[in-house]
Design goal:
heterodimer, A: Arc Repressor Mutant, subunit A, Arc Repressor Mutant, subunit A, 3-stranded antiparallel beta sheet, 6 strands, B: mainly alpha, 48% helix, 11% strand, flat, MAGE (chain A), MAGE_WH2 (chain A), MAGE_WH1 (chain A), ubl conjugation pathway (chain B)
């Protein structure tokens, strides 16, 4: 704590100004997360909040770090940084890949399940889990038609726009891409261009990946006839 | 040094993820994480909330408590205290939709009978252009030409869709008789705005009385929430006198003795509530082995009693 206040005073900014900036960053993260249903927030958007009015070079990093600390101490949220670990073939950039953040609750899983989990969004979580598992079992990558083949077995059709629970199925899948659970790539194949879905940052994130593997193994252990993924 | 621990975080996150919670649900979570019943450990409960709010003030947010005026239920929610650049990102609604919502709120607030709701038809007929003029105030010059096309062309079906979304998100609600009322989120979020808006406040709790009982004296502005009134009635044994204008409020109390109180005559026949059974009683009297004379006179007086009872009945409803 003493270190950071030294850093801030070196940067010629008052405590109040610093607090105001940190609060703005926190508020931005909270409101944006609500508005875009948990899609990652780019680090650039956060630095912009600082650089709009302040030009000290090291200030954005310090403000963001303090915002991360406060989001944890006040709300119990971890602002986790997602890194693009698998560069998609369409994406030419590598290092220039924006860092992005998502908010993840730091509460223990049983507490979260009992008191926080919103029963009204359980269908979305379920859908997310199923799709990620399918892609995971396919080796982390799956061509579009294969994915729909499996979804159709569950009664989810590509053309269905008014599914009683999920609404527009295609849109529901697209949301997973926006939330960075999946990414879409065009692959040049012998038959022409095919669309391939790959696991993206959020699905490859350590804790998430481990939980998914655990859940899959639980399901498979219970199943006598295992389902073949082609 | 962390001031808040996982127990505080649980309550904060529950409100953030699930939206406003009714009092018993909120109490349940508190009791589960702290092992203390909020009703028996009131001070601990309040200290807990105070601690949370002290930290939340850093980001201009607040854990607030309010009454859903539709049913008197106490609710808790996390609200934003400041409208700034960041909070503008916090909404999924478009500008015309928000304008429409404001129009609905204003229409509900302007109801002099304090129903706390408007009919769906009235809601759908709200014109967004009027909202713009009100917002612009003395600056408005060009009239209709100043209204952006998105507001002017907000169609009926778009309004219907917006109403459904607003109800789903608890900004508005459907009342039991099919009208549109304010939702719990509006009561939470806009509490101070309502308070400063000039609506008469409730005599008992001093909150804006949007859905409330208005003084039966037409010129009097006094309002009391239905749930505040219930409490007052139970304390004052059924009699309320308006503190502002002194008129006594009449009430439909479902006890036969009440009719005795209202009615001046002390005839025993008065104690029968419905007029219908009185007629039956009359017939029974006639058939009974009673004095014809007494019967005859009682018939006449019974008839006038009938009139009195019916009259006092209409006074009460």
């Amino acid at each position: 704590m003493a270190n950071s206040s030294q850093d801030f005073s070196q940067l010629n900014i008052s405590e109040e100004e610093k607090d105001k900036l940190v609060a703005e960053v926190i508020r931005y993260v909270l409101f944006k997360t609500h508005q875009n249903s948990g899609c990652p927030i780019k680090r650039d958007e956060l630095t912009q909040i600082v650089t709009k009015n302040y030009h000290q070079r090291l200030l954005p990093a310090l403000v963001i770090n303090e915002a991360i600390a406060k989001l944890s101490s006040i709300f119990g949220f971890e602002m986790r940084e997602l890194q693009r670990s698998r560069p998609s073939s369409t994406n030419q950039q590598s290092v220039a890949d924006a860092k992005s953040y998502v908010l993840i609750s730091q509460l223990p899983a049983d507490v979260y399940r009992k008191y926080i989990d919103d029963v009204n969004t359980a269908h979305l979580t379920g859908f997310t889990f199923v799709v990620i598992s399918i892609v995971h079992l396919a080796g982390g990558k799956i061509p579009e038609e294969h994915l729909w083949h499996h979804l159709r077995r569950m009664g989810l059709h590509e053309t269905d726009e008014s599914h009683p629970v999920l609404g527009n199925i295609k849109q529901a899948l697209e949301t997973l891409v926006q939330q960075r659970y999946l990414q879409k790539d065009k692959v040049n194949g012998p038959e022409g261009n095919t669309l391939v879905y790959e696991l993206a940052e959020r699905a490859l994130d350590g804790p998430v990946c481990d939980s998914i593997k655990e859940y899959i193994s639980q399901i498979v252990k219970k199943e006598v006839a295992s389902v073949e993924i082609d | 040094m962390a001031v808040l621990n996982w127990k505080h975080h649980t309550l904060i996150q529950a409100l953030m993820t699930r939206g406003p919670l009714k009092e018993n649900e909120f109490h349940k979570i508190f009791a589960a994480v702290t092992g203390k019943n909020p009703r028996s450990h009131e001070r601990d409960f309040n200290d807990f909330l105070l601690k949370i709010n002290k930290e939340l003030s850093y980001v201009q947010m607040e854990l607030r408590r309010c009454r859903n005026q539709n049913d008197g239920q106490v609710c808790y929610g996390l609200v934003n205290n400041v409208s700034d650049e960041q909070s503008k990102f916090g909404t999924k609604y478009s500008v015309p939709q928000i304008t429409f919502y404001k129009g609905v709120i204003e229409a509900i607030m302007q109801d002099a009978t304090a129903q706390g709701s408007i009919s769906t038809i009235d809601a759908l007929n709200i014109r967004l252009e009027n909202q713009v003029h009100r917002g612009m105030g003395s600056q408005s010059q060009g009239g209709l030409s100043q209204v952006p096309p998105a507001l002017r062309n907000f169609s009926m079906s778009q309004k219907e869709k917006t109403l459904d979304e607003l109800v789903h998100d608890q900004w508005l609600c459907h009342t039991p008789d099919g009208d549109i009322g304010l939702g719990v989120k509006s009561y939470l979020d806009l509490r101070s705005w309502f308070h400063n808006s000039g609506i008469p406040t409730c005599e008992v709790c001093n909150e804006a009385a949007i859905k409330a009982k208005v003084c039966q004296n037409e010129g009097c502005m006094l309002r009391i929430h239905h749930y505040c009134l219930k409490k007052k009635l139970s304390q004052s044994r059924g009699k309320i006198v308006c503190p502002t204008c002194g008129v006594q409020w009449e009430f439909q109390i479902p006890k036969p003795e009440a009719i005795e109180v209202e009615d001046e005559l002390n005839e025993p026949t008065v104690s029968q509530p419905p007029a219908g059974s009185k007629r039956r009683k009359l017939k029974a009297n006639r058939n009974a082995d009673a004095d014809i004379g007494a019967c005859g006179s009682s018939q006449v007086s019974s008839a006038t009693n009938l009139k009195r009872v019916t009259r006092s009945y209409t006074r009460m409803t």
